[in-house]
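Record type: monomer structure entry
Structure origin: computed from sequence
Chain ID: A
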Amino acid sequence: MWLKPTKRLPLAILLSALILASPPGSAVAAEKTQPPARPVPRLGMNLHGPADWNTELPFVDVFRLARPWISQEEGRPWGQGPELDLGEHGWVKRLAPDCRAETPI
């Protein structure tokens, strides 16, 4: 039933009547038409820290799992080579004669 505002029926009463007369669940139906929010993932994978002994490969560049460079020199004990010349990103720039650099991956 629609009511017209008159001098005897204030607009507030008319609006209250319209709200009460609306079918139940009409506000809920409007909410259901909106797409649901994306769920926040609560499960993680590969939770161990990156290390060269892990079976997980969390990086595309596997070399990021490598240990620091080890300097080797012919005729000397393991890891007893001269100091390595490394660049700003940690790559070996230059090796002395009869030397090599190794790292476990």
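Annotation 1: The radius of gyration is 36 Å.
Annotation 2: Residues 11-21 form the longest helix (11 residues).
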